[in-house]
Each structure stands twice: as structure tokens, then as C-alpha cells.
Specification:
By secondary structure, the protein is of the alpha/beta class. The protein has helices at residues 23-35, 39-62, 78-91, 108-116, 196-200, 239-243, 279-292, 303-312, 338-354, 370-374, 392-402, 405-412, 416-427, 463-477, 482-500, 513-516; strands at residues 14-21, 69-74, 96-101, 120-121, 130-134, 154-158, 180-184, 187-188, 202-206, 219-222, 251-253, 268-272, 296-300, 317-318, 327-330, 358-360, 386-388, 430-433, 438-441, 449-451. The strands form two sheets. Strands 1, 8, 10, 11, 12, 13, 14, 15, 16, 17, 18, 19 and 20 form a 13-stranded mixed beta sheet that branches. Strands 4-3-2-5-6-7-9 form a seven-stranded parallel beta sheet. The protein starts with 13 loop residues before the first strand and ends with a helix. The model is unreliable at 3-9 and 225-247 (pLDDT under 50). This is ADP-dependent (S)-NAD(P)H-hydrate dehydratase. InterPro entries: Carbohydrate_kinase_pred_CS (IPR017953), CARKD (IPR000631), Nnr (IPR030677), Ribokinase-like (IPR029056), YjeF_N_dom (IPR004443), YjeF_N_dom_sf (IPR036652). In the N-terminal section; belongs to the NnrE/AIBP family. In the C-terminal section; belongs to the NnrD/CARKD family. Its cofactor is K(+); Mg(2+).
Length: 519
């Protein structure tokens, strides 16, 4: 579990870490209660929570719930049972709740409860204010053919959108695209990664009493909501707080400089960045580090590149010596320049020898091979103070060089929650696997961290150079692990993009991030 040392800047924006489980873990946590004969109670709790969230969504949508029309698409299993019980609860609150049975059979007791509440069955879902997707749930496997839904209705998924794999977020066939998903027992990985993220909409959780049976989470998702830790946003959220009842929610937060700090105690960051072909990468990485906050930034670059950096950032020191460095950034903008790559390899060796925290990005990732890790100086590990920042394409090239079939398969199947930890295990380094969902994994048993908040504008040249500078600055200034600094850097990077581009239009270049990083 991550911890944050006492900090004088508790008003600094923080990022609560919300636990996430796989569908298999949730089902395993339910099993002792099912064996004890509490299956009906679990279903009642889930359906009551589902109905409560639907009422809040209807209230926000219409201003009232009385007379609203809700149509449930009902499957044959427990997911359909949850839906039918929820429809029965809704009818008692004045909602015109109806059901469409999509399978020949359904949950018998739930159907009886629905009919006892005055519910009626129909054959189409036309004309509803809200459509409840309760066709298939976490136990579903195989391919799904999603029905066509009418335009204009809000779609709420029961536990997860039908057709989405609860583990990986994969869709085999087609899946229902929800505006909201009300999930039971805990957030599920399939709602946050892969195609599941795009199909789930706003996430809400319902505590059904699994707390004592839940295992160590499969990971933690970083949330930007600080006032109510554990929520995932949207109407009626807050169930994750109840899941975490009695636990301290860990929060990522930057530590401010001490009152008696000076430039060396705040940390010197040494950046080996830029080349004649890619001089802008040096500007971006150094600028990002300064905007994040360091005691001193040193740039190691060809003379023309270093002069341009110092001209833009006169506080920067041009130096080929990294003896006083508290952290290093190696790689942005080096390209395939053989001299620059040789300098990078020498600096990486210095980092490993002296255990100086280091970010390896872009071209420097090409240094990582089986032969390098087999070198006695590395003994199979780059060190947990090292942070690798590949995007998926770079990770695939790493997998080829390392010759690991397990990593290659995970990347080919877009299983990012498996790929990042595997790469961390193979290299002994912290891995930031960048993408629409970014996964931060460290060697060892610590669960991976997920950043899921959308920032589509970051899909542009140079933003990786900015991220490397941010993480490097945090490694130099924060008294925290490399895993902690990497995760915080990812969050700050995306938050800057959303401040700059709140509607996600993507109309900015990487250099614009530097203006808002210090806010």
C-alpha cells in the first residue's frame, strides 16, 4: 500500500487510489456468502442499490421520477434477476417499470417479485426514458450480439455492459454501450481497460457486503475526485467509499519543499536529451522539469541544442557531469544518433551503479536487451529506482528484444494489466505503459496503478518528452518510491492536459502543457 509522508501542502491537489478487482475475484468473494445461503440477500442488496442509482439518474435527467418509463432488458441468469428486482423496487417509487425477456427463461423468484409489484412484460423497448441492461453479467463468456436500442434513452448497465469481459474489457462480437454502469461489490478491471472503458460510461459502485472476503485488489485506479475519496463521479456515486469503510484511502500528493531548502537539497535533475535531429525534445523535457519544480536542471546535449535550451530556460545549466544528480532523464529526442546513445548507455550504467533514480524514455529504451540485463553490472535488473516509459509500440519492441512469449502475448491481446507487471518483472524496473489507459507497475507484489481519466489531446508529438521531464523532477524532489513518483507524474501530466483542453478537442501542442503545469 502506498503511503504519503506528512506534507506542509495538504491543499495540493491529490489523487485517491481506489481499489479494483477482477470479475473472478468478486465472484470468489461472493462464494462464501452463497455457500452460507445468502445468495438471495446479495441479490436484494445489489438490486436495491441499482434501483437507488437509477432513481438519482432519473431525478437528474427529468427533475422527478414519478411517471418515468424504465424498460429492463432481462437475461436468464443472476444479472437478469438483479434487473427484475430493481424494476420491482422502482415500481414502488412510482416508476413505470417494464421488462423485456431476451431469453426463454429467467430468474423465477425475481420475476415473481416483479409481477407482484405490478410489472408487465413486453416485447420491445421503444419509448423509454431509461433502458436497463441486465442481459449478461460477470460470468458470461463467448460472443455476444448486442440488440439495437432506441435513440434518446439513457442506458444503465447492471454490473457491467452486456458483452464486455469483466477481466479484460474485451468485446467479442458486439456489446451494449451504457451511459452509466452500476457495478456490485467493487470496481471491476473490465470497466476500466480495453473496450470496456468506452462502453461503461459513468461508474457507480454498490456495497453488497463482500468487504471481509475481498482479496488484495488487482490494482488501484487513480481518481481526481478529492472531496469524496472513493467516488468515480456522476449522479449517486459514492459506493466505493462504503467498500473502503474503515480503511485509509491512500492519496497521491506532491510534497512541497521544506522551509530551509536550497537548490541542492531540492534536487538536481540531469537530463540527457535532444539531438541535432530532435532539438525540441530537450526544450520540452527541461521545461516540464522546471515547471514541475526542481532545485536545478542540468542538460547534457550537443552545443547548439544546449544553447537553445539555456536561451529558453536561462536557469538551466549545460553540463556533461552528473555527479550531483538526484535523478536523471535519459532518452527524449536522442533518435538513432550513435554518439548520443553511447552517452545514454554510460549514464545508465552510472545510474545503476550509484542507485540514482532514472527515467528511460524513447530512444533510450532501445538500450534494454537480454544481453544488457545479463551483464554483471545489472545482474538481471535495472533497479526499482529506474522508470521505463514505453507506449504500446515501444513495449512490443522491448518484448521482442527480451524474447519473452508471455509479454508478447499480453501485448498482442491488449492485456495491459498483465503486460505492464510482466515487463516490470523482466527488467526489475518501474514501468509506465502509456496509452488511453496508462498502467504503472513495479517489480514485486505491489498491485499496478491505473490512470483512466481521458486526455485525448496527449496523443500528439512531444507529450512523452513532457511526461519524462515531470517524472524526472518528481524523482529528484519527492521522498517517495519511483512507483509513487511515476504514478503522480502521470496524473499531473493528464491533469495539465485537461486544464488546457477541458472538452478534449486536442487543439494544442506539447509545448502548451508547460504553461499550465505549474498551476
Amino acid at each position: 500500500m502506498l503511503t504519503q509522508r506528512d506534507s506542509p501542502n495538504q491543499d495540493e491537489p491529490g489523487y485517491p487510489l481506489i481499489p479494483v478487482w477482477t470479475g473472478e475475484q468478486i465472484r470468489a468473494a461472493e462464494q462464501p456468502l452463497l455457500n452460507a445461503g445468502e445468495g438471495e440477500a446479495l441479490m436484494r442488496r445489489a438490486s436495491w442499490g441499482l434501483a437507488a442509482h437509477i432513481l438519482q439518474i432519473l431525478q437528474a435527467q427529468r427533475g422527478s421520477v414519478y411517471g418515468a418509463t424504465v424498460v429492463g432488458l432481462i437475461g436468464s441468469g443472476n444479472n437478469g434477476g438483479d434487473g427484475l428486482y430493481a424494476l420491482a423496487f422502482l415500481r414502488r417509487r412510482g416508476v413505470d417499470a417494464r421488462a423485456v425477456l431476451l431469453r426463454p427463461t429467467c430468474h423465477t423468484q425475481a420475476l415473481a417479485a416483479f409481477r407482484q409489484a405490478g410489472g408487465q412484460l413486453q416485447t420491445t423497448d421503444d419509448g423509454a426514458d431509461l433502458i436497463l441492461d441486465a442481459v449478461v453479467g460477470t460470468g458470461f463468456s463467448g460472443s455476444f450480439d448486442a440488440p439495437s436500442l432506441p435513440q434518446g434513452s439513457v442506458v444503465v448497465a447492471c454490473d457491467l455492459p452486456s458483452g464486455v469481459d469483466a477481466e479484460t474489457g474485451a468485446v467479442r462480437g458486439t456489446a451494449i454501450r451504457a451511459d452509466h454502469t452500476v457495478t456490485f461489490g467493487g470496481l471491476k478491471t473490465g470497466l476500466l481497460v480495453g473496450q470496456g472503458r468506452a462502453h461503461a460510461g459513468v461508474l457507480h459502485t454498490v456495497d453488497i457486503g463482500l468487504g471481509a472476503h475481498l482479496p488484495e485488489p488487482a490494482g488501484y485506479v487513480m481518481s481526481e475526485l478529492v472531496d469524496t475519496p472513493g467516488t468515480m463521479g456522476g449522479a449517486g456515486s459514492g459506493g466505493a467509499e462504503r467498500i473502503l469503510a474503515g480503511e485509509a484511502v491512500p492519496v497521491l500528493r506532491r510534497r512541497a519543499p521544506d522551509a530551509d531548502a536550497h537548490k541542492y537539497s531540492r534536487g538536481v535533475l540531469h537530463l540527457l536529451v535532444g539531438s541535432a535531429r530532435y532539438p525540441g525534445a530537450a526544450q520540452l523535457s527541461v521545461g516540464a522539469a522546471l515547471a514541475t519544480g526542481v532545485g536545478m536542471a542540468q542538460v547534457q546535449a550537443p552545443d547548439a541544442v544546449a544553447q537553445a535550451v539555456v536561451s529558453s530556460w536561462p536557469e538551466t545549466v549545460a553540463s556533461d557531469q552528473a555527479e550531483r544528480a538526484a535523478a536523471m532523464v535519459i532518452g527524449p529526442g536522442l533518435g538513432n544518433d550513435s554518439q548520443r546513445l553511447a552517452e545514454a548507455e554510460a549514464l545508465l550504467q552510472q545510474s545503476r551503479r550509484n542507485a540514482v533514480p532514472c527515467v528511460l524514455d524513447a530512444s533510450a529504451l532501445a538500450l534494454i536487451t537480454r544481453e544488457l540485463l545479463a551483464d554483471p553490472g545489472y545482474a538481471g535488473s535495472l533497479g526499482k529506482h529506474t522508470v521505463l516509459t514505453p507506449h504500446t509500440g515501444e513495449a512490443q519492441k522491448l518484448a521482442e528484444r527480451l524474447g519473452d512469449p508471455q509479454l508478447q502475448a499480453a501485448l498482442a491481446e491488449q492485456k495491459v494489466l498483465a503486460a505492464a507487471p510482466r515487463l516490470a518483472q523482466l527488467t526489475g524496473a518501474v514501468v509506465v505503459l502509456k496509452g488511453p489507459v496508462t498502467v504503472i507497475a513495479a517489480p514485486g507484489d505491489e498491485p499496478p496503478l491505473l490512470h483512466t481519466e481521458p486526455a485525448p489531446g496527449l496523443a500528439t508529438a512531444g507529450t512523452g518528452d513532457v511526461l519524462a521531464g515531470i517524472i524526472g523532477a518528481l524523482l529528484a524532489t519527492q521522498e517517495e518510491s519511483a512507483r509513487y513518483c511515476a504514478a503522480l507524474g502521470v496524473a499531473l501530466h493528464a491533469a495539465a492536459a485537461r486544464r488546457l483542453d477541458p472538452r478534449g478537442h486536442g487543439r494544442f501542442g506539447a509545448s502548451a502543457l508547460l504553461r499550465v503545469l505549474a498551476e
